[in-house]
Amino acid sequence: MAETGRLTRAAAGPALSPVTLLRAAIILSALAVWELLSHSGWLYRDVVPSLLSILRALIALLTSPSYYFNLGVTAAEIATALAIGGLSGVAVGILLGANRFLSKAFESYIYYLGPTPKIIFFPVMIMWFGVGPESKVALGTLSCFFPVALSVAAGMRGIDKVLIRVGESFRAGPWQMVVKIYLPAMRHPIINGIRLGLGVALIGTLLAETKLSNKGIGFLIINAYSTFDMPRMYALLIVLFVLAIGANALVGRLGGLDSIKRI
Amino acid sequence: MPAAGSPSDDAILVVDDIVVRYETAEGPITAVDDVSFKVRPGEFLSVIGPSGCGKSTLFNVIGGLLSHHQGVVSVAGETISGPHQSIGMVFQEESTFPWRTVIDNVAFPLELVGMARAKRAERAHYFIALVGLAGFENRYPGELSGGMRQRVSLARTLASEPKILLMDEPFAALDEQTRLLLGDKVLQIQQQLKQTTLLITHNITEAVQMSDRILVMTYRPGKTKRIVDIDLPRPRTSEVVSSVAFGRYVAEIWSDLREEASRGMQDEESYVLHHDGTAS
Questions:
Q1: Which residues of chain A does B111 touch, with a Cβ-Cβ cutoff of 8 Å?
Q2: What are the pLDDT digits (tens) for B58-99?
């Protein structure tokens, strides 16, 4: 019933579908409950700040230079982690996928280390790289490496063998084989691995920042928390949420663009 | 020389005493046993045999993709060890690069040797037109039919301008009509370029339609059973299949092949029986 209703609506022209209306209703009622709670006095003061104060904090945040500085720090950490972890993941994945011996010897380690929460290595990273951004990059890299390596190794094994034989029959050199056959043939697993890698690099880096740091968005959040500046903390969470959605959409777009024609 | 009837002096491809053995769980299997033949410039030779006669193994040996064999393959007097620039292979499987457009697929071998972009495009255009795909240069293989993709593979191999075109059942995955028409296309190109061609196939009609000579192989181990001269007028098209002489050749080769194919069938049946029916 709902389906037919939506179809006729869609045919009639652009109008608010029941789904959109319901979604809007959920958000609005959540905001209403929030606002009600903040004025009720049922909870400890300021744990649920009013929407207005959060909005004010958000504006203050978005107009302060220190926010952009720390955002830059975090973005650079994640980008560096993605670059190092992603590239080494691709390289290791290719090696494991190409060499049966190496894959037998090492892949089970990667397989079992992969799902381990990398934050448990954070104390070690602090000792090796210090409290600054370096230890965050290290943790992000560590998080990013595993899904990329596993995805690329599987992709390497999934390459249509005949394409490799075509390359060999035309006497492609090792470098030409990698650049012109292996990498393009693995574009889907590589993009997929990087998408997964970005997600965990984001989590790893931010988690590390909230644990112990002196710069970055995670630092701002935990700083707001420890000074009990709740509106500011919520404003930061909102910003972070929007950024994470944006990053995901960006990488998703990358995969989407590729799959249009080049099945 | 078992390759009787062929003048040896002007042969461009010489296959001499090829033996290939595989180690399997059941012990060694001789896939190809003592196969020898010669191909003259401009000649169209087909190797035909039942499945399991080692013809694909032979294809890989001649193409230089398989090296653990005995015997010698030489091109224009030069013994080959590994893939050779004079031999262009067309594979049975779908082998176009799905991430490259038709023109980039065809230009692939030219790109590998570092030919300049403009010259590369020009030559690719020529071979795309030759296989009848002009206008499809900027399409991706995913947008083409199976027969068109196989023509892209053919154009790609021809673009490397091999002395010998080596094809392994290039039409096996296609339906019968496409296969016949594509066979016509190959014949026409082969006659136009005077392209020396070696076709590996299990299809008798295809082999008789196109070949100057046909080498019939036995079922495992793959040996030369007979070499048949096909004395049909050229230029040929697929219309030749309705002639009386054509039918005679087909019948002749079938009587040879039938023995081998039924031997292969019995062999496979007994294999399945002895392996509790689990083997496929």
A1: 180
A2: 899 999 888 888 888 999 888 888 899 999 999 998 899 999
Q: Which residues of B touch A162 (CB under 8 A)?
A: 91, 93-95
Inter-residue contact B172 to B115 (CB < 8 Å): no
Strand ranges, E, within chain B: 13-24, 27-39, 44-48, 69-75, 78-79, 87-90, 164-168, 196-201, 213-217, 224-229
- What is d(CA B80, CA A83) in angstroms, rounded to the nearest whole number? 44
**Letter for the amino acid at A2?**
A
Domains annotated on chain A, with CATH: 76-216 (1.10.3720.10)
CA atoms of B120 and B126, how far apart (whole Å): 10
User: In this complex, how many residue pairs, one in chain A and one in chain B, have their CB atoms less than 8 Å apart?
Assistant: 56
Give the residue from B199, B207, B258 showing the smallest Cα distance to B232. B207
Please give the full DSSP string across B198-213, using - where no structure is assigned: EEEES-HHHHHHH-SE
CATH code: domain B1-86+164-258 is: 3.40.50.300
Going A132 to A138 to A143 to A147, the CA torsion angle's sign is positive
Dump pLDDT digits (tens) for A55-100. 999 999 999 998 999 999 999 999 999 999 999 999 999 888 888 8
What is the least distance, in Å, from the CA of B97 to any CA of chain A?
A: 7
Amino acid at B147: G
CA contacts within 13 A on the Cβ side of A17: 15
On whether the CB atoms of residues A159 and A185 are closer than 8 A, the answer is yes
pTM of the model: 0.77
Annotated domain spans of chain B: 1-86+164-258, 96-161
Closest CA to A76 of A87, A66, A84, A65: A84
Q: Which residues of chain B does A165 touch, with a Cβ-Cβ cutoff of 8 Å? A: 65, 89, 91, 95
- DSSP β-ladder status, B13-24 and B69-75: antiparallel
* Whether B67 contacts B104, CB under 8 Å: no
